[in-house]
Amino acid sequence: MNWDVFLAPYEQAVEEIKIKLRGVRKQYNMSSTKHTPIEFVTGRVKPISSILDKAKRKNIPIEELESRMQDLAGVRIMCQFVEDIDAVIKLLRMRKDFEIIEERDYISDKKRSGYRAYHLVIKYPVQTIDGGKKILVEIQIKTLAMNFWATIEHSLLYKYSGEIPGNIIDRLQRAAEAAFRLDEEMSKIREEVLEAQAIFRRKEEEQRNH
Ligand code: 0O2
Prior knowledge:
The protein is an alpha+beta fold and 210 residues long. The chain contains 7 helices and 5 strands. The longest helix is centred in the N-terminal third of the chain and has 28 residues, at 3-30. It is flat, with a radius of gyration of 19 Å. This is GTP diphosphokinase.
């Protein structure tokens, strides 16, 4: 298996999607009335060691990775408020440059670990020197609080090779509840925050036009 060649279209897809979504954010930021539902975007191609671990765990033969491992290419969209997640989903559903083939709502139905996020799997067309190719990309949409929790839990999973001790699992559950409450509280003051951000944007615009 030549991993560089195999993963090249995934690298390309991640870079292209990041640029497109950052463009969406820029368009919102140029408007003095609209709040951007996208706080920031990150992306990665799964490291080879993680691909091999997951393939083993899920019994996926190497030759079936392309069709069965949906997150070889992964893009994360971070939002300030839970309400923004719905706006981003709507925005993605409207796009014509890829096809959504699956949606997993771990917000209405959180995972047992406490993980919350909205996942979409898309079929994204990339152009290669051998012609066009459609590849799977997983888009995760999260609030900043959801992302904070998932990042910490992910490091602990790595540290303990998936077997996190019971007392830490309990703490993570409590932290997940706290992150949920933080999102709820922030939603309640959302209008105030949006107004403050709009004032700030208008001031910046005035300065730019001076
Ligand atoms: P990495 O290192 O982020 O690439 P499964 O692994 O069976 O749970 P599946 O069927 O591949 O998941 O799809 P799913 O549930 O959409 O999960 C894919 C990715 O979502 C994971 O990739 C994680 O990035 C994230 N994720 C899902 N569940 C959890 C969780 O409980 N905690 C954290 N921190 N992240 C989660 P990988 O390959 O597991 O890991």
